[in-house]
Give the backbone structure.
Amino acid sequence: MQTIEGLDPLRSAASQLRRDGPLALVPTMGALHEGHLTLVRAARRHAAHVAVSIFVNPLQFGANEDLAAYPRPRERDLDLLRGEGVSLVWTPTAEGMYPAGFATNISVSGVSDGLCGAARPGHFDGVATVVCKLFNQVRPDVALFGEKDWQQLAVIRRMARDLDLVRPHVDRILGVPTVREADGLAMSSRNAYLTAEQRAQAATLPRAMADAVAAIERGADVPATLATLSTALIAGGFTAVDYAELRDADSLAAIDRPGAVPARLLVAARIGRARLIDNLAVAPAP
Ligand code: AMP
């Protein structure tokens, strides 16, 4: 496994790997857990070699967010990736990624609006900009992202389509289902911010969301169900609900009841120092 920090060696290593067959890219911010490793295992099924990027991208953090506190267990991450048969780990520096004078911003409107885009202004511009750069740097044939970050996946697919990205082509941007802890909580590097008590309370999120999905699929009123969901989260120990919304699963357009197209329930809520997000599929109306 090669670990590379500079762009020139990265480009030659990636093109060397592409000679053996398709190259997959799994972009991450490190602090790896089973969710990330599941993406790597899925990537291996789609490619001859897997490249993983580890970059805590300053552009996607707001002024009052956790950029400085974000965990960076580098050696542990590298050991985990070695164990998964990863060929290349790309660990650019912030100065290398955004040298003095860097002035370009990729802004994907529509799918970036609302949800996390409203709660975290500029976040998806930062995500789109860094992912576009990662694609151009590594030039992977396929890239894998977690469905846990559903809106992020929609933003990246939109960007790839709109900018005619060829590597990876939009159809080679693959979503991987959310990996969960035994009590249903979606795995996240930010779960490490929780105390033991908050960690136990956090399981309210997937439980209350599953209840809301079941109610909506039975035909319950959507705004009333979402209000019940928010109340359950606050009663369960969350301090604020940034949003709890039903959206068209693909366009992310707001909907007030499930129609013929798949819908998605998306929630962001705060507990302790963490802001947790999750989403679940809602079946189309019969
Ligand atoms: P992050 O390091 O948080 O930026 O995540 C890197 C990639 O891993 C993103 O595509 C995430 O959506 C994905 N990911 C994070 N947590 C999970 C999870 N619990 N299940 C599946 N994918 C995940």
Remarks:
- The CA atoms of residues 90 and 251 lie 32 Å apart.
- The beta strands are 2-4, 23-28, 49-54, 88-90, 142-146, 173-176, 240-248, 263-271, 274-282.
- Residues 28-29, 35-36, 38-39, 145-146, 148-149, 176, 178-179, 186-189 surround adenosine monophosphate (CB under 6 Å).
- The longest strand covers residues 240-248.
